[in-house]
Amino acid sequence: MTRTHVSTDTPAPEALEGLGKKDGDVVTCDACPVLCRIRPGKTGACDRYGNFDGRLARTDPVTVTRRIADQSGALVPFLARSWDGAVISGSDTFVTGIGAGTTYPDYKPAPFIVASQVDGVDMVTVVTEGIFSYCGLKLKIDTDRFLGPEQSAVRCRGEQVGHVTTAEYGSQMLALGGVRHLTGGSKKEGVVTCETLLALCNKQTVELTIDGGSTVTVAAGKPPVVNGVHEERMRVGCGSATIGMFAQQWRDHADEVIVVDDHITGVLTEHQAGRFLAMRPAGVRVRGRKSTPGRYFQVANPGTGWGGTDISDPLSIVEKIDPKTAWPGMRLLMVSTTGEQASWFVLDNNLKPVPAPMPAAIQAIVERIGENCEPALCSVLFMAGAGGSLRAGVTENPVRLTRSVRAALTRVTSGGAPVYVWPGGGITYMVDVTTMPDGSFGYVPTPAIVAPIEFTLKLDDYEALGGHMGHVRPLDSLKGLDKVKFEPERPGNPWPLQAAPVK
Ligand code: SF4
Fold first, then answer.
1. Residue 261 near residue 340 (C-beta atoms within 8 A)
2. Ligand 1 center to residue 24 CA distance, Å?
3. Which atom number of ligand 1 is nearest to the Cα of residue 102?
């Protein structure tokens, strides 16, 4: 380790915990622009800082993630516990921004700038809690059910906190938060938006209502509840894809199959798959706009019925049955994209579809549609811009941090979890909140969300980009802290130090 760069003096706990100004017994917190004056034994407006024995201190412990190996070298779970005072060092310990504290407006260096050595290379991790006024989240809700028209307002407790954005394959998408709702509306809108973001980022349950649509209850990693109905299945595909997947299995047991879907309804014998299998045209014409053979758009209105349409009677989408093509006794299956709804019909002598008991072979294929559906979940991706003043806590020359991230010399993580950094200007990143430790997020009443962020890079590169070298400290200097919480490395996450670029 290049010791000349690293302060070997263990800093006093006070120096690590806060810089608040004292006025008699009262401490003024300067960790955000609210500048709370905090009386002894009390906490500030965000509950993140308090006056403890006359000094300003962060109320939550600094979270350190750690991985350990068993005798075979395999990584094993590390139980969360308080620090027992043992020396911690090396590449198997990572200091996260959770509980690290904020240094707004970043005229001072980040709370922790920690040295480590990885495979013989000197590294440094700059650790802070960012205060994000420019932030929001993308909420992916695995359901076909209609949640509301695109662009509709999404509300929590009556306040608009976001809008419906473009649907994805098998999922409805909401865009929540953002600087306009946090700062551009009424004070109440900003507060409720901040509370909604905070709850969802911390994996809590929130009820949202959508103008002209549904009420949906959501939590990261949990199934959605739409209008009181628990969603279980994410559809196997659109109607056309479902036809493609199961055409071969249907061929010998049905004369026609119609997969009802709000977006693309599939009609087997017209579809390319049915033609490839040389199926006899059945003459059932569905409503809506024909895209290509056997693929129909807009067969009904969106809703919470079959395949995300508003229908409960599948025959309502049948426009006509061609007497020149159809025949008495013709067997017709109508099914939704999750297999949750399915009806079997046989045409009578007047070519009218008559409900009939579903044959076992058809029932088995319908059940296979369900089996191929994935569990419906809500996914919450927090998105924020770390390209502003936060960078000054890392370097005296902020644009160099942006360039270093862009050049992949600096690894960005959030609570130790991997992030996706958007191309283009700034450091705009997204992180799946389920990959982060519980309770990673906080808030300040400006209003803004507080999120952990870490920048890891080679020590040499840190010096080259104008880093605060005088504040780099060895890992075991954290022993001076009152509160440290160990978290096991989260399964599935790349180890932040191992993943750090070392070239
Ligand atoms: S809101 Fe929190 S961070 Fe901001 S000044 Fe008050 S105690 Fe400090």
1. no
2. 19
3. 3
Which residue has the CA at smallest separation from atom 7 of ligand 1? 44
Pairing assessment for the beta strands 229-230 and 233-234 based on DSSP bridges: unpaired
Ligand 1 centroid to Cα of residue 447, in Å, is 11
Rounded to whole angstroms, the Cα distance separating 186 from 33 reads: 19
What distance in angstroms lies between residue 390's CA and the mean position of ligand 1's atoms? 17
DSSP single-letter state for residue 395: B
- Give phi and psi for 40, each to the nearest 5: -55, 135
Ramachandran bin of 88, using left for φ above 0, alpha for ψ from -120 to 50, beta for the remaining angles: beta
Nearest atom, ligand 1, residue 30 CA: 5
Q: Which residue owns the Cα nearest ligand 1 atom 2?
A: 46
Residues with CB under 6 A from ligand 1: 29, 31-32, 34-36, 44-46, 48-49, 444-445
Distance in Å, CA 39 to ligand 1 centroid: 13
Substitution site in 32, 42, 59, 191 for ligand 1 pocket (most atoms within 8 Å of beta carbon): 32
Phi/psi at 361 (5° precision): -65, -40
Nearest Cα neighbor of 294 from 351, 250, 338, 329 is 250
Q: What is the pairing mode between strands 484-488 and 62-66?
A: parallel
Query: What is the rounded distance in angstroms from the CA atom of residue 368 to the CA atom of residue 234?
Result: 14
Q: What is the pLDDT along the chain (503 residues), one digit of tens a residue?
A: 333 344 444 444 434 445 678 888 999 998 888 999 999 999 999 999 999 989 999 999 999 988 765 555 444 444 444 445 454 556 788 999 999 998 877 778 999 999 988 888 999 999 999 999 999 999 999 998 999 999 999 999 999 999 999 999 999 999 999 999 999 999 999 999 999 999 999 999 999 999 999 999 999 999 999 999 999 999 999 999 999 999 999 999 999 999 999 999 999 999 999 999 999 999 999 999 999 999 999 999 999 999 999 999 999 999 999 999 999 999 999 999 999 999 999 999 999 999 999 999 999 999 999 999 999 999 999 999 998 888 999 999 999 999 999 999 999 999 999 999 999 999 999 999 999 999 999 999 999 999 999 999 999 999 999 999 999 998 878 776 778 888 888 889 999 987 555 44
Is the distance from CB of 11 to CB of 479 less than 8 angstroms? no
- The residue to mutate among 444, 446, 449, having the most atoms of ligand 1 within 8 angstroms of its beta carbon, is 444
Query: Could you give the 3-state DSSP secondary structure of residue 242?
Result: helix
Ligand 1 atom 4 nearest Cα = 32
Query: From ligand 1's centre to the CA of 38, what distance in Å?
Result: 9
